[in-house]
Design brief:
Elements (H helix, E strand, L loop, with lengths): L1 H42 L8 H14 L4 H15 L14 E6 L2 E10 L3 E8 L3 E4 L5 E16 L2 E7 L4 E4 L6 E16 L5 H12 L2 H20 L4
Antiparallel strand pairs: 1-2, 2-3, 3-8, 4-8, 5-6, 5-7, 5-8
Helix pairs in contact: 2-3
Bound molecules: 2-acetamido-2-deoxy-beta-D-glucopyranose (NAG) (2 copies).
Length: about 240
Amino acid sequence: MTSKKSGNKAAQAPDASATLRKWATRAVIAFVVYVTCSFLDRIKDRWYVFDPKALHALAQDAVKAHPDDINAIIPYIVSNLTAEYPASAIALNTNSSEWVLNNAGGAMGAMYIIHASITEYLIIFGTPLGTEGHTGMHTADDYFNILVGEQWAFDPPKLEMERYRPGEVHHLPRGHVKQYKMHEGCFAMEYARGWIPLMLPFGLADVFSSTLDYWSFYHTVRITARENIRNLLIGKI
Ligand SMILES: *[C@@H]1O[C@H](CO)[C@@H](O)[C@H](O)[C@H]1NC(C)=O
Ligand SMILES: *[C@@H]1O[C@H](CO)[C@@H](O)[C@H](O)[C@H]1NC(C)=O
């Protein structure tokens, strides 16, 4: 009996120090990951090509030139961007027939991806039917420039609705969440800057949990990957 007990104690001592070592290693790894992430977060700005204010001015001019005409607004925007930004600075997708359906946060619409990189994306998003849902919790700043129709938003504890009209921009800072509605027909130019890959699960999760629309999923992934690679090839992260 006695010898058995002391044997157990001897076996427990190395266990305790092994556990301590394991947790010390985990703490060091967590610290290194934290330091790396916060460093990357501080330097991400150097890869931004677009400027939210310039994009807002462009959206306003497009709305003024072609009020209520999304079919004319989109080519106006794309031709301005291709004239303004050299192909050596940013890769743009000029094929405005490349629309994909998207479900996220309970809302549904379609998007045309104009630009996609690791730190920025620019899309046209909307639906002629209206839709409503959760903005999602994001690691990027989001600028929603209304082109036609209206976007409404609910930001508790403020109980009055926010209303964004064509030419106005709805800025959703990263980490902030709201309920939103694309009221009746609404299209917007959405610009996001930050860590874009971390937003993808929100944009794609509904495929697996709800829509099973692998066709749209395939094209979304294909276009996003293609545009990311085109940007990486010119050094735009
Ligand atoms: C693009 O739009 C901006 C903002 O409206 C404007 O200042 C600029 O002159 C336009 N560029 C071209 C090439 O049309
Ligand atoms: C543009 O996109 C459409 C839809 O995906 C496709 O059918 C067409 O071939 C594309 N055009 C070019 C020039 O790539």
